[in-house]
Design goal:
Layout (H helix, E strand, L loop, with lengths): L6 E3 L4 H24 L3 H22 L3 H6 L2 E3 L17
Antiparallel strand pairs: 1-2
Helix pairs in contact: 1-2
């Protein structure tokens, strides 16, 4: 029987949070610039880019992604300084 480490569903690692924050912030800036310079239907496309960027920034700040949680993806729990794992019991319950 294989023992698997407990996983925090939807949790983002430090590296992924940094990447999401940088890319999301860039997308927000590009979306705003596009929204202000282009008219018509293309303005709505740039607005959408800005919204996607804002979502990336929000998930980076929170460290939690609802889509990852729904898909069951996450990162392993880590022990705090006392060595006690939070949110996990040895019996798997």
């Amino acid at each position: 029987m294989r023992v698997m480490a407990p996983v925090r569903r939807g949790g983002l690692g430090r590296g992924e949070r940094i990447v999401r924050g940088v890319l999301g912030g860039g997308a927000v800036l590009v979306g705003i610039a596009g929204w202000l310079t282009v008219g018509g239907w293309f303005a709505w496309a740039w607005f959408g880019v800005g919204l996607i960027g804002a979502d990336f920034v929000i998930t980076a700040v929170r460290g939690y992604c609802p889509l990852y949680a729904r898909l069951g993806r996450g990162r392993p729990y880590t022990a705090d300084q006392s060595g006690i794992r939070r949110g996990w019991s040895p019996g798997g319950h």
